[in-house]
Every structure is written in C-alpha cells, then in structure tokens.
Amino acid sequence: MAGDAAEVGDEVTEVAGASEAAKCIKAIDKTTVHRICSGQVVLTLATAVKELVENSLDASATSIEVRLRDHGTTLLEVSDNGKGVEECDFEGLTLKHHTSKLQDFGDLVGVKTYGFRGEALSSLCALSDLAIITRHFSQEVGTKLEYDHNGKLLTKMAVSRQVGTTVSLQGLFSTLPVRHKEFQRNIKKEFGKMIQILYSYCLISTGVRITCTNHDGKGKKTVVVSTSGHPTVKDNISSVFGARQVSSLLEFQQKTASADVLAEYGMDVTDGTVQGIQPY
C-alpha cells in the first residue's frame, strides 16, 4: 500500500511539473519552424514534382525529364533545357521568400509565371538532400551546387553540362521521421497521385517535351509518360491517353454572343474582342 501511494505521489508530481512547463510559452527555434512550414508547402511526392516542373516551364524549357528511383523514395530528379540559373542567383536560389518575380506587393497583379513566392526550393532543402547542376546560357560551363537543410549554399564546383538545370532530391521527407515513414508505406499511392498531376502538365504544355521514368531497385527502367512537344493540346492528349481517346472527343469552339445578348449585358465587340469582361 505504501509503495502504491508513493508511485501515485510521483505521478502527481510529474503531471504537476508537466503542467507548469506547459504554462511557459516559448518561441520555437528557427530550424524547427522552417521544417514545420516546409512540410506545409510540400505535402506529397506530387507536390514536389509539380514545383520542379513548374520551375522548368518558367525557365522556358522545351524538354523536361522527370527521373525517379524506387518511385521517388530514393531519388527524384528533374532536368530541363531551360535558360539556367545565373551565378548571382546561386546564394538566394533556395532561401525562404527570395524571388526574382516580385519587387513589391503591387507586382502580384502582373505575375504570369507558375512560381513567384520563393518557397518551393527552400522547402525541398528542408525536407531532403538537395543538389543542383545548372548552366546559364551566358556561361561556358555548368556549376554543381549543394545546399544544407536551411537552404544555405555549401559547395560549388564547375562541371560539364548543356544549358539548363537539373534538380536532384535524395531522401524526400527524411528530415521528418513520421512523415518519411508514412511516405514510404504509401509510396504506390503517392506515385499514382504524382502521375495524375504530371498528366495535367503534359496536356497543357504545348511545344514542350515531357518524359517521366522510374528505376526500380534492380535498375529496371520504366517509362511512365512521354510527350513529343506537340503544338496542340489535342496532340498531347493522343500522346498521353492514345489516339482512340482523341477520336471520342469533340472540339470546343468559342464564339462571340449575338449583338442582342451583348447589348443586354452592356458589352460591345472591338476588333473581335468582347469589351467589359476582365480576366482574373
């Protein structure tokens, strides 16, 4: 009985101590904040691929290759033939809220690119081991860059590369043990969602060749999806889903409303453009 009473007393003391500690509101250290926030920017394998493909499209790439090893658990790599990264941008490329797309808040109105907030590469640094090989069109050789989990440039060395950029991620979500375990456990589902997202960019990106391959543990290479840089969405649909799927589609043609309808809504047509409608 006495022993039981002592154990209960110890538990009460521990609970009281925990309660006292809980009352102390303290700032979370910057490294933990960075990981928490990064985990809200890049949620899945699909999000990681989406962000990297969008960066390639923003760089005016006409050829984008997505390469995965073990469905993305070991390696995710996106390579393009875009304009590359200038040397003056090496330091700020992976830092939080660093971007070349905005100078002030008013610039948001004119943003015409996919990425502009400067969060994707910074978040991927926090969630994986990130390395970049890039060559700007103004440079004669490429540069390999390695960053730490805070987005700070660690090493820089000259390498051979054609104009463009390759971003490699090893051990995605490895800095978040619980998320990493769930990621590995549900990798087939994650991979399936990634493919659906990639299909979307394959369809809408006319004039851009997009390929995705996966290498399994035995080195076997599987082509997941491949387009040929067709000039129309219809041709892209044929590359992704097959010619039979295209034959069952109907082409949508946009036509201007009649004069009576335009007058009813207070609109007019100038040079073939409907006035009074503002795009968002």
Explain how this protein is built.
This protein is of the alpha+beta class and 280 residues long. It contains nine helices and ten strands. It has a single domain, classed as Histidine kinase-like ATPase, C-terminal domain (Heat Shock Protein 90). 36% of the residues lie in helices and 21% in strands. The strands form two sheets. An eight-stranded mixed sheet has the order 5-4-3-6-2-1-7-8. Strands 9-10 form a two-stranded antiparallel ribbon. Strand 9 (268-270) and strand 10 form a beta hairpin. Helix 6 (187-204) packs antiparallel against helix 7. The model has no long low-confidence stretch (mean pLDDT 81). InterPro entries: DNA_mismatch_repair_CS (IPR014762), HATPase_C_sf (IPR036890), MutL/Mlh/PMS (IPR002099), MutL/Mlh/Pms-like (IPR038973). One of its GO terms (molecular function) is ATP hydrolysis activity. Belongs to the DNA mismatch repair MutL/HexB family.
For the secondary structure, the number of strands is: 10
Indicate the radius of gyration in whole angstroms: 25 Å
- What does the main sheet amount to? 8 strands, mixed
CATH class (first level) name:
Alpha Beta
Count of discrete alpha- or pi-helical segments spanning 4 or more residues: 9
N/C terminus separation: 74 Å
Calculate the mean pLDDT score and round it: 81
The assigned structural class equals alpha+beta
**CATH superfamily assignment?**
Histidine kinase-like ATPase, C-terminal domain
Strand content: 15-25%
The CATH topology is Heat Shock Protein 90
Pfam family, one: HATPase_c_3
Family: Belongs to the DNA mismatch repair MutL/HexB family.
GO molecular function: ATP binding; ATP hydrolysis activity; ATP-dependent DNA damage sensor activity; mismatched DNA binding
